[in-house]
Write a structure and sequence with these properties.
Layout lengths: L1 H7 L10 H16 L25 H17 L12 H12 L3 H10 L5 E7 L2 E9 L16
Antiparallel strand pairs: 1-2
Helix pairs in contact: 1-2, 2-5, 3-4, 4-5
């Protein structure tokens, strides 16, 4: 994501970035992606790429649609058993945003607020999906574990 952003904004490329600069760069990259300003779905002709995409594999709209299809699949496969899904902050923020009907700008802010190893819990029923908890790090509440928390 950042690589595609810097390709469009070479003046923002630096040798080294502070943590604050990296977060700003990620936010700017996500914002550009959400506004369809970054190229995607272009297959590289570089022989070292082995035919892989040279920029982003999908647009923001395709990403939203993929997450929405996943939510619909969860809903259609609804059963009384618990289901665990392990993923990164982007899909989590997108799921929460879709459940709560949050605008894209706020979805990006949500994504950047997700803590490492945080737990988000949803209640999935045949006719609805509800957010039960977001960004919980209760498993890191013990004094020895507090140093394991990460913030953006």
């Amino acid at each position: 994501m950042i690589k595609a952003y810097l390709k469009c904004h070479p003046a923002k490329k630096q040798e080294a970035y502070s943590n604050k600069d990296l977060i700003r760069l990620l936010k700017d990259s996500l914002t550009s992606w959400s506004q369809d300003e970054l190229s995607h779905n272009s297959v590289s002709h570089d022989p070292l790429s082995h035919g892989k995409f040279n920029e982003l594999d999908e647009s923001w709209a395709q990403f939203q649609q993929r997450i929405h299809k996943g939510l619909l699949k969860l809903q259609s496969d609804f059963s009384q058993s618990d289901t665990l899904i392990f993923t990164s902050g982007g899909p989590i923020a997108q799921i929460v945003s879709q459940i709560l009907n949050i605008p894209t700008k706020n979805c990006i802010e949500l994504n950047l607020s997700i803590q490492n190893t945080a737990i988000t819990q949803c209640i999935c029923q045949q006719d609805s999906i509800r957010l039960d908890s977001f960004n919980s790090t209760s498993h890191l509440d013990a004094p020895k574990q507090k140093t394991l928390r990460s913030f953006s």
